[in-house]
Specification:
Two copies of one chain form a homodimer. By secondary structure, chain A is an alpha/beta fold. Helix content of chain A is 34%, strand content 15%. Chain A has nine helices and twelve strands. In chain A, strand 2, helix 4 and strand 3 form a beta-alpha-beta unit.
Chain lengths: 349, 349
């Protein structure tokens, strides 16, 4: 999370807006919290230029809950959905959807170890929607172009690159993103859903996880995750002050390009398995050509204060995550370390 | 929440345990957070003397989600459940359960406007469990004795009096409590479930809301509400430092008795509709005999810094909530105000 936001939250931690109370204790039924939630929603609408026929929900449960809640809410009378299989997270969402209906894999890059995002989607006209994952954090691959899908509603898990680049919301039926990457702290999940997709929930859907019911109740059908919504609102406000989403896109392009450059210029010392044009601007996954150097790299990086560089357990190697709150100085320090490390170990490959 | 806890959380807000990171940003997959979660779980087990054959889960979704998740997880092959109807919250849980199965109302105090907790429960042997609400926040009524239920597992929504009095966990099949009363901030719900009730989930249960799956994954099947779990852990630690649950019970008895005394000694100026022996030690609901004085009471109380005294919208009147974190000084100030107000308006009834 941005340091400015954390500092503000700390400053008003015991006394929010002169109320004498902590936002942690403010009742969600009072005007104070409602104002916070509405401001957050309106700021998000402005940041992403979200059309009026889309509802913005702040839900409990994380993105993994949405893996179930999307089919429960959107399947309606359809019996199948389309999924695009692009790596670790899309596989998880696909497996969960299979618990509710037939899943047609409309495109997959599994055969090439998820080294790119598939462009040729074979959609089924009878499917309720087509689900994909915009950015795969474990694999380091990201969609930079979305194929036309005609009338099939697009549903996207945008958890890991939400708010990192401009977005034409009108192309989507539903967008969901849990907060803990670019929005704020874990606990709240943003759901942006087109009006006409509401009202089809399966009878077994828990009422508090029914999109239509939460849209009707302004995301306050039960106590929302108040502190997370408040912090998300501070992040949205910070984003606007930074110049909005366009600035975030410039930042992530600049930072990710610099890191990929170090990898590509390392004469094979580092390697990134992802095809050019499909590489993630959020999660730069790479390894040392000599596998045995990876633990040395991680250990030395930690000593230098460069934390959380270990790759996802299923992938191994290294991963640099460049979420919005990452400052340029952090990226610069990593680049310097990577160059020094490669220089120091250039005879070890 | 206790001021000591809020102060500690503020102090380490930007630098948790010397890590240089905020707990808001600490990844749940790292050892630091796992230690926090395990400590919270172990402290809770010790506070309530929870037997080994019970699992402690920290779940997303709030207590209202449990209204659906309990039948989804526990119904199994049974086709009915028993519910005790005691007021606003039990009615909500009952309505939600009806979406999943036949609900047999085994006891109800609706006929007497929920002025007591029914003692004569007519349980159905074929029901999967019997659900009740230990304390009704809107009505101000609380169970002080639980009837014997034989072999039928007892399921209790303990959200509003959890950790306020000692508890024989072995009498229950499942206990749930969302955090925002006595545990911590909204976002996390504690579920304590007996081992043998796991593994019966309905196929439509979202995986992240499957008790057995979360028990297996140590409540980390998806990113937990990390900051809420951390704060809950601080509250559990604070409770131990205060002398544990017995101290909380003494506090709530002392504070609630003092308030009820003011009401009962007011010569009919104030009235509490709840029968003696059934009155809540957490939520003291009362009104002025002259209805027109209620808005005056609330307005003058607010001017004196006595906040959040408005009764639940469905009940009207006034309500003083005495959750664990409420200090004696707050109760004393309210008592003094109530006496002065009654004195000033004694001719207005």
């Amino acid at each position: 999370m941005p340091h400015e936001v954390l500092r503000q939250a700390k400053q008003e931690f015991l006394d929010w807006d002169g109320s004498g109370f902590s936002m942690l204790e403010t009742p969600f039924t009072g005007d104070a919290f409602k104002k916070v939630l509405h401001q957050a929603r309106d700021d998000l609408r402005e940041l992403l230029n979200i059309p009026d026929n889309y509802r913005i929900l702040f839900m409990h449960g994380g993105a993994s809950a949405q893996f179930s809640l999307v089919p429960l809410n959107l399947l309606g009378s359809a019996r199948s959905v389309d999924h695009i299989d692009t790596g670790y997270w899309s596989s998880k969402s696909l497996r969960e959807a299979r618990r509710y209906c037939k899943v047609h894999v409309a495109a997959s890059s599994a055969d090439s170890q998820y080294d790119h995002m598939p462009e040729n989607w074979k959609l089924s006209p009878e499917s309720a929607y087509c689900h994909f994952t915009s950015n795969e954090t474990a694999n380091g691959v990201q969609f930079h172009q979305i194929p036309e899908t005609g009338g099939v509603p697009l549903v996207v898990d945008m958890t890991s690159d939400f708010l990192s680049r401009p977005l034409d919301v009108s192309r989507y039926g539903l967008i969901y993103a849990s907060a803990q990457k670019n929005v704020g702290p874990a606990g709240v999940t943003v759901v942006i859903v087109r009006d006409d997709l509401l009202g089809k929930a399966h009878p077994a859907t828990p009422t508090v996880f029914n999109y239509a019911a939460q849209a009707e109740a302004d995301s306050m059908l039960q106590t929302p995750v108040t502190f997370s919504v408040y912090l998300a609102g501070l992040v949205f406000r910070w984003l606007r002050q930074q110049g909005g989403i366009a600035t975030m896109e410039q930042n992530s392009l600049r930072r990710s390009s610099s890191l990929y450059q170090v990898i590509d210029d390392s004469n094979g010392f580092y390697c990134c398995p992802i095809q050019h044009g499909h590489r993630s601007h959020m999660n730069i996954c790479f390894s040392t050509t000599n596998d045995t150097l990876a633990p040395v790299f991680l250990s030395e990086a930690t000593s230098e204060g460069l934390m959380y560089l270990k790759g996802h357990p299923v992938m191994g190697g290294m991963r640099a995550s460049l979420y919005n709150a990452m400052p340029d100085t952090g990226v610069m320090a990593l680049i310097e370390f990577m160059r020094s490390f490669a220089e120091a170990h250039r005879y070890d490959i």
